[in-house]
Amino acid sequence: MIIDGKDLVLGRLASFAARRLLEGERVTVVNAEQVVISGRREATFDAYDAWLETRNLTNPRKGPFHLKRPEELVRRAIRGMLPFDKPRGRIAFHRLRVYRGVPEELSGQEMVSIPDASLQHLGTRRFIRVGQLSKHLGAST
User: Fold this and answer.
1) pTM score, two decimals?
2) What 3-state class would DSSP assign to 45?
């Protein structure tokens, strides 16, 4: 299953993809930079900036490692919906692929959009795209 992430809400997309992964399907998400996060722009930036401040004081090279690229942020959100500490969740996570844009090998194939996760069903007009958040976090493109 190939999901087009354009104008889909991140949490709803993540829960849908996690459910399909646990059922045994292979899930590919394209256009990860166009997925949206609902909420005020400043509040989202503040939350992620605080998240970037957490580190290991004794040896920062040991982690935690903070993801910044859009495909990594979407992949991590989907991982959060899976029982990753159990073998079933880890195996399901390995069936997931997330891409920025649409790769050439997937360009001619049919893509699915999730109507329930659409930006049209969002009750507010306050949102930010994952690509904008990634640029704010300092991701190298």
Assistant:
1) 0.86
2) helix
